[in-house]
Inverse folding.
């Protein structure tokens, strides 16, 4: 029987993947191999590299979204090649980004008469950089008109010690001193009794945090606004507030609409959030909005060609995929206000359940119970003789796939070690029960291991071992 000859370049897919020469040899890892390999083999090799990677849905450390609907994933996969920065080439992407900005501004009670403006970013880190730069440039423009030498002394930004590391980067990149207000044991948020002591004529702004990274607690932005209002009445060197709402900005409006923290406060001039946190989009997309044009200095706005005209842009990053903007727009269209509200209310209910279960365990002190952001933070009590550490417990939980971080609180509370559990959309009641079961098993194993250790030591003491 004659066999049809293979065409040039045609691959014989009858060869089993695990019978290929690539699976039978070690390929170079830090330089390119000389020859190409079949796509199916390359796919398997990369998949194998990720076999021992953690399960994202069991990652209780991250705020970042670990689930999206198949329809959203399909849309995002179809738009991976579209460059979000090319306004003329992809005008509809630009339109959808504009719609997202307007929807978020509406949630944050921006006033159209002030001509708010905003942009998408690569997560909240870029959004914070943009907001920080706007504060610095606006401060410099103000104080120079008042005759202050803006180069005589380094400008400063006042923020609680519970800030996310992007603010430390901002200080280094743009030569701004971070004045960290220590958080106190009783509140663990921005200390409103001392915050204004850190402010002077070289202060470019104050950052309030709606969802502190360490604990999930909210700074009291309303009271901070009141303090700033009083301060501004006493000086020509005005100071304004940026709200870092990376976590809370797309959570609080749906479940705590009565909480006043946004553009309803007249000294809040800019807000950022992460669409890839409680905006329910895969990493990474963020958003930043200014309450009016006068709060974003024109030096930071650049014009790009758009449909024969021009369009303002203020992003730091340039070329990047439009997929995450599409994902955000899909979620806004798909869920609407009531959809987001129902998801977030369920998430908070799960956090409440976990908090109650943890509080019932004799060996934990619950620091944050998830009643604001659905984030639980707990430590070991200092008045109990516990023979293991939270690091030991994290390690034991990791054996069941759960990733629960152990870390010290900021600076003046650095002697306190905590666990933090972030409850996300895809961490439902059934998974929460599974986690509590595995937690109890881990605690029993740790206690039994230390009991056995002490018994062995006793035996050695009395000479019963050889």
């Amino acid at each position: 029987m004659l066999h049809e000859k293979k065409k040039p370049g045609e691959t014989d897919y009858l060869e089993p993947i695990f019978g290929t020469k690539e699976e039978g040899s070690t390929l170079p890892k830090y330089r390119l191999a000389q020859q190409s390999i079949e796509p199916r083999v390359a796919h398997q090799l990369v998949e194998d590299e990720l076999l021992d990677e953690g399960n994202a849905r069991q990652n209780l450390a991250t705020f970042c979204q670990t689930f999206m609907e198949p329809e959203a994933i399909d849309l995002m996969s179809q738009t991976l090649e579209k460059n979000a920065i090319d306004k003329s080439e992809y005008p509809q992407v630009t339109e959808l980004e504009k719609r997202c900005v307007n929807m978020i501004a509406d949630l944050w009670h921006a006033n159209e008469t002030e001509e708010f403006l905003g942009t998408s970013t690569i997560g909240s880190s870029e959004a914070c950089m943009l907001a920080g730069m706007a504060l610095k440039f606006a401060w410099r423009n103000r104080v120079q008109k008042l005759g202050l030498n803006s180069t005589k002394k380094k400008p400063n930004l006042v923020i609680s010690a519970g800030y996310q590391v992007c603010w430390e980067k901002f200080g280094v990149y743009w030569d701004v001193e971070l004045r960290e207000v220590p958080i106190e044991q009783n509140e663990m948020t921005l200390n409103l009794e001392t915050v204004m002591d850190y402010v002077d004529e070289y202060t470019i702004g104050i950052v309030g945090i709606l969802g502190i990274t360490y604990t999930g607690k909210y700074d009291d932005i309303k009271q901070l606004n009141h303090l700033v209002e009083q301060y501004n009445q006493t000086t020509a060197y005005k100071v304004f507030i940026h709200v870092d709402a990376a976590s809370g900005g797309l959570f609080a409006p749906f479940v705590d609409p009565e909480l006043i923290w946004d553009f309803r406060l007249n000294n809040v001039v800019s807000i950022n959030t992460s669409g890839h946190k409680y905006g329910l989009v895969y990493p990474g997309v963020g958003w930043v909005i200014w309450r009016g044009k006068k709060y974003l200095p024109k030096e930071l706005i650049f014009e790009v060609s758009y449909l024969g005209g021009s369009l303002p842009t203020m992003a730091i990053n340039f070329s990047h995929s439009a997929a995450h903007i599409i994902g955000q727009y899909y979620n806004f269209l798909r869920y609407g206000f009531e959809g987001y509200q129902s998801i977030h209310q369920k998430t908070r209910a799960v956090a409440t359940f976990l908090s109650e279960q943890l509080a019932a365990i004799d060996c934990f002190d619950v620091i944050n119970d998830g009643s604001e952001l659905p984030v639980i933070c707990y430590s070991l009590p200092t008045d109990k003789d516990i023979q293991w550490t939270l690091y030991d417990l994290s390690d034991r939980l990791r054996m069941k796939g759960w990733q629960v971080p152990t870390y010290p609180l900021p600076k003046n509370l650095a002697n306190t070690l905590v666990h933090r559990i972030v409850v996300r959309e895809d961490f439902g009641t059934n998974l929460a029960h599974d986690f509590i079961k595995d937690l109890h098993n881990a605690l029993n194993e740790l206690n039994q291991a230390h009991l056995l250790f002490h018994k062995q030591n006793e035996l050695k003491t009395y000479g019963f071992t050889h």
